[in-house]
Structures are given as C-alpha cells and as structure tokens.
Amino acid sequence: MTNKPTIKDVIDGFNRHYNDTSDEEEKGIMMRNFEALSGNEYEDYNIENFRNLIQAIEFDGLSHFNMTTFIASIKDFDASDEYGNDYNMPVNEFKLNFSAITSSNAFDNTTKSFNCDSVGCIAGFATAKALDWKQPEWMKLDSREYLNFFEHMACNYLNIPLEVGRRLFYGESGSVWAFVRFFEPQNYGSIRWENVDRRLNHHNYDYDDQWEGEEIDLSSIDYKTAVDVLNRIASGEIRFDDGNDYLPYYKKDKE
Fold first, then answer.
1. 70 - beta bridge partners?
2. Cβ contacts of residue 244 below 8 Å, gap of 6+?
3. What is the C-alpha to C-alpha distance for residues 53 and 203, in angstroms, rounded to an integer?
4. DSSP SS3 for 247
5. Which residues touch 45 (CB under 8 Å, ≥6 apart)?
6. In 10 A of CB 100, how many CB atoms?
7. Integer angstrom CA distances of residue 27 from 13, 16, 80, 117, 122
8. For 123-182, how does the pLDDT look when each residue is reduced to its tens digit (9 = 90+)?
9. Quick one: which of 163, 170, 129, 172 has its CA closest to 147?
10. Which of 63, 73, 221, 245 has the most C-beta neighbours closer than 10 Å?
C-alpha cells in the first residue's frame, strides 16, 4: 500500500514543478497521492476536514462561492502511467469560466495571502483550508498550469479518492449533483440539467431515468446547496460505490 503524501509533501512536489525541476518529481507526487487515496472508503474520510471545509463555505459562500470558477469540463481524460493507471485523473481536457473572477484577490476580506482564480469552488475552498490560506510558490504560475494540483490537494485534505473528487468537484456525468437532482427534485430543483431538452413532468421529475449520463450546469449550484450535500456526505448518508465507478448512492439503499 502506498504511503499517503502529507500536505507538505504535495506542496513541496508542486513547488519543484514551479522551479522547473523534472516533471517526473511532480508526477511522482501525484502518482503517490492517487494510489494512496484510491482504496479509501467512507470510514477513511477525514470528517473533521469536511467540517472545516463546510464551515469555510458557510462563512464566505454568499460572497465567494462559485462552482464554475474551477474546471468546468473533464471530458475524454486519458492521463495515465505505463500501466494504464489514471494517476492524474480526472484532468485532461478542460475549459475555464472566468466570468466570476477578477485579477484581484478573491478573498480580500478574509486574507491577504491566498490569491487564486479557482478558490470559489469546493476544490478551491478545500485547497485554501489545506494551505491555511497561505499562497505557495506554485500558485504564482498561470492558473491553467496548476488546476490539477487543486484536485490532488483537495482530495488529500479530505482523504477521499480522486474518483470521488470527480463526482464532487464537477458537473459531468455521474456527479453527486446529478444524483440528488434526479432522486430529490423536490429538494434540489434549483440544480439545472445542462441538457435543456431533458424531459421533466409537471412535478419537475424526470421522464428519463438515465441520470448517470447527464451533465449539470455548475452555475446553478449555490453555496447552500453545496453545504447541504457536503454535510450529507460527511454524515455518511450519501456514499460512493467503489465497485461501480464511484457512483453516488444512499447508504440506506444498501442496508
């Protein structure tokens, strides 16, 4: 079993990338991180850090939470090692939405040291907490150069597999957001399907039951919705099936 890198290990590995050392050192850290987290189940999650993340979003969410300021698309990712392991997943192809960010510090009212284009989303908040709101060297790069660092840092902080991070940080097929939108439209009707032609009945329920293949409009997820779902994951009510591509499920359905 691979020993999990510490937050300091991850920071140091990414700083070496910033200082133009071998990419192999950066990949080595990401490989170790990916492998160390891959087998983690709910019982392994760092619930204290989930609570810290939730509190941070509750505190700053009204002004600064925006799911679209991270990576909005991860289609066709294929980053893998020679054995086919997706150590860097899920980032490969991505698009950015800069409509909600400025060149100034996104958190001027809470910190003078943490400056990041992506801090508005769940992965950004988790990374900020992991770094204690202090900006490392690698964050001085163009943000497009280090977006995958956020995934690794956030998943390390929460002690969740990167595959679970994919279900949580993005609105792609199989996301936890599509899951709750489909099964609980009465509670999550504000979450919008990316597919505007998806058929809904007059109760806002779906006609089509193939929710796993649908994408979510990330801009429709507000901070209160994010906090609610994060609390349900932290409590173990919503879990992720490692035997089924880490798709979300309700714990009660498997009891």
1. none
2. none
3. 34
4. strand
5. 158, 159, 160, 233, 234
6. 16
7. 9, 11, 10, 23, 23
8. 888 988 898 887 777 777 666 667 778 889 999 999 999 999 999 998 888 999 999 998
9. 170
10. 221
Whole-number Å distance between alpha carbons of 125 and 119: 5
Q: How many CB atoms lie within 10 A of CB 159?
A: 18
Where is 34: in which H helix or E strand?
helix 23-38
Residue with tokens 């700083």: 15
> With a threshold of 0.90, does the pTM exceed it?
no
Residue bearing tokens 């990414």: 14
Segment 178-188, tens digit of pLDDT: 999 989 989 99
For 85-121, write each residue's pLDDT tens digit: 444 443 333 333 323 333 333 333 344 445 444 445 8
DSSP 207: S
